[in-house]
Amino acid sequence: MAPNLVDIFSLITTITLCAGFVFFAVYGLRTIQAGIASTKESLKSKGLTVSRTGVSLKTDKRMDRDEYLNATQRGFVNLVEASSFRRGDGTVVTPGPLLPSRSTESNDSHGVRKNK
């Protein structure tokens, strides 16, 4: 039995759809890979290197012990200044700034306020 016109048309349509799917899958994959590569290059120009093992940061200087301690102390000061503590009587105490303020205003309330 010879194939008729509908069989040939169906075969051509099926092959065309499969080829189109493969083409767009490959095109999409290449586009995504190009985006990843450009992002890696952009990060690399900013000093970040991305690899399979993780991310590494390029720095221009090394910190000695004093610089490391100063940075750590600044972090603790910022942490304490941003915190608040609740007492048993419902008052909230926020510690004042640990470092001297440059403003001339005084803090009369000492960071204590009543909850309503």
Automatic annotation (TrEMBL):
Transmembrane in keyword set: yes
Keywords: Membrane, Transmembrane, Transmembrane helix
Transmembrane segments: 6-29
Region described as Disordered: spans on this chain: 88-116
Sequence ranges of Basic and acidic residues compositional bias: 105-116
Name of the molecule in the record: Uncharacterized protein
Native species: Coprinopsis marcescibilis
